[in-house]
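Field guide to reading this record: the first block holds the primary sequence, the second block holds the structure written as discrete tokens, and the final block holds curator observations. Each block starts with its own label. This record concerns 6-phospho-beta-glucosidase, catalogued under organism Bacillus taeanensis.

BLOCK 1 — SEQUENCE
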Amino acid sequence: MTVVNKQFPEGFLWGGATAANQLEGGFHEGNKGLNIADVLPGGKERLRVLKEPGFNFEIDREKYTYPNHEAIDFYHRYKEDIALFAEMGFKVYRMSIAWTRIFPNGNELEANEEGLSFYDRVFDELHKHGIEPVVTISHYEMPINLVKEYGGWRSREVIGFFERYVNAIFNRYKDKVKYWMTFNEINSALHFPIMSMGFSIEKEENKYQEIFQAFHHQFVASSIAVKACHEIIPGAQIGCMILSAPVYSYDCNPENVMYALQEQQLFNYFCGDMHVRGKYPAFIKRFFKEHNVTLDIQEGDLELIKEHTVDYMALSYYMSLTQKKDKTGLEATPGNLLEGVKNPFLKASDWGWEIDPIGLRITLNQLYDRYEVPLFVVENGLGAYDKVEEDGSINDDYRIDYLRSHIEAMGEAVEDGVELMGYTPWGCIDLVSASTGEMSKRYGFIYVDKHDDGSGTMERKKKKSFYWYKDVIESNGENL
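BLOCK 2 — STRUCTURE
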């Protein structure tokens, strides 16, 4: 038998990933305005808010806690944290800019200098350590003013506000950032539009009409951003970002296979088709017809989307999804804002997310076969309870096992012929969970002494996985 030596390409972009609203804190500092994450409560209440209609986008401290307000205080501690990223050998650091640091209300005519200066300092610190920033333009933090005054991405007017925002950051950071992404996990809005689109569906509304009209506005906005990026920063690369989860049929019953295919098309391919192929896919026309969706598409929209497609596709991958048309009597399994039925062949994390490294290889093959553009795994990781031992060590072998198996799967995909740009596992430093607002759901190589009740010293500690990942990067994925 021939043993194939799987190697990651030279210049592979190893690093880690975070989001502004989950680690920065300083929610009221630097003239920053309120965003969606600032008003989402912590703990189990967050999932209820995400699922139920009628959320008022207000802060109620008597009722809820708000862990994002302080998060892990990266706003003041970024130098310390970036030094730790550099010690691991990061080539890149995927982060996001908080829209409300640049335009506090979203609709100002001039950008906020304090916010612009903050990210200047962060980018300068990264470059000092030889780390390239990979910047998400909008990561679950739409300005609350745009939510309340315009209805979020329901309104076409928001496109103009977004255009002003992207022009401001492209012009300011054109010499400091060469990797960009437009909307984080844009397809997640199919299940939870509140975080990325700025509205919840009211009971009397046609859910799909509202969501797909908002999608259209985002596709136009994304294309405007791609056009502006290529004009303002020649040589920069700008991508889309999708929440990726391959959809398996529960069995070989053709009805279930078809059901899984339709879920795969809608969830994994629709937004990718719009960003990479630059057009509405054939399958969506029937979906629109069956769900009474009629889009308001203005003159020039489709041409803009067609002409300004992304340079690469970025994706998050945590789990696969198993579906059955009739779920009666079957155990449901939770996931990254998704829910399917339990896969009997897979184990699950502490939060019930099924662990499926082969699914990552499957996903990478499926996406590359469909789009033939470079892929970038910008989120992947294991949320788990970590224990600090008496000697101060954190022995997170379970996290190492998870990441090792997924890196091996990426290596297999590269050998399959997939063009893979890089890998930035999620929550390289512990941060606030997006879906549950918890600190106890930890992903990082770096432990932060901050807890669900708000207590803690904020001290940073290196976990066992810190040293393991350092060796992975140094060996370009050879030493796992």
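BLOCK 3 — OBSERVATIONS
The chain has a mean pLDDT of 95.
The chain has one domain: 13-474.
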